[in-house]
Amino acid sequence: MEQARMTLRLPIELHLWLKAEAAKNRRSLNSEIVARVEKLQQKEGK
């Protein structure tokens, strides 16, 4: 699978929340973001 790099600016509160969720799910921050975006994509049927 091809991958793209990007810089993402987030409010600090959202960053801290995502970081905590990633730790809880034993994933990297990047993997957590990808998993959540993929889940949203499936939910929207695209």
UniProtKB/TrEMBL annotation:
Q: Which controlled-vocabulary keywords does the entry list?
A: DNA-binding
Q: Do you know which Pfam families this protein is assigned to? A: Arc
- For the Arc-like DNA binding domain, which residue ranges apply? 7-45
Q: Name one GO molecular function term.
A: DNA binding
Q: Which domain of life is it from?
A: Bacteria
Q: What InterPro entries does UniProt report for this protein, alphabetically?
A: Arc_DNA-bd_dom, Arc_rbn_hlx_hlx, Ribbon_hlx_hlx
Q: What is this protein called?
A: Arc family DNA-binding protein
Q: Which organism is it from?
A: Oceanisphaera pacifica
